Amino acid sequence: MDDIRKVIADAYYFRTAVRVYNDRKIPDEDLNLILDAAWRSPSSVGLEGWRFVVLNNEDIKKEIKEVAWGAQYQLETASHFILLLAEKNARYDGDSMYQSLVRRGIPDGDGITSRIKTYEDFQKRDMHMADNPRALFDWTAKQTYIALGNMMTNAALMGIDSCPIEGFDYDKVNEILAKHGVLDPEKEGIASMLSLGYRLRDPRHPQNRKPREHVITYFD
């Protein structure tokens, strides 16, 4: 157990936001394990309202680079570049919610009806989002960050660097992806991006965080 703890702790101290990568490529088996971390991640009510697109098309990368100030070097140098897409309009009474229940083995009939009623209460009473398209997208988009974190941790455990990216014009990136058929803008939108590879150089500054006791507290 102590060995496992050390491996995990080392991975967290190894991970840093890498902006420039060397030309080494991530082996397919390692990339697939990173992607599996996203695929197997938990999501609210088991919806899985996401997709993860490994973007290999250099022409699309060049177009995105023009509107992504936070991904200039990553788009040029990363071994792999991943787009995290979130579902739109994931209402309690939509097909994606129904399919998620079927996928999890909830029996048709009263079983599904009861579960959908619970999700209706959740979306209407608790989250106040059922009739708000922006709120529904924000709900699914923030779930992709669970998968994002899991991918970065998996990568770090294998000595692979990463950088999560939000620095881009969301509307223009969505337009680019829609133009090329990467997504249907009526159904999905970009949530964030992730670059993966191997750092060209060590970071200039040590990893700094707020004092642990300021971030983690206990209330008895």
Automatic annotation (TrEMBL):
UniProt record, GO biological process: 2,4,6-trinitrotoluene catabolic process
Entry keyword Metal-binding: no
Keyword terms, alphabetized: Flavoprotein, FMN, NAD, NADP, Oxidoreductase
Molecular function via GO: oxidoreductase activity, acting on other nitrogenous compounds as donors, with NAD or NADP as acceptor
UniProt KW Iron-sulfur keyword: no
Family membership: Belongs to the nitroreductase family.
UniProt protein name: NAD(P)H-dependent oxidoreductase
Organism, as annotated: Streptococcus bovimastitidis
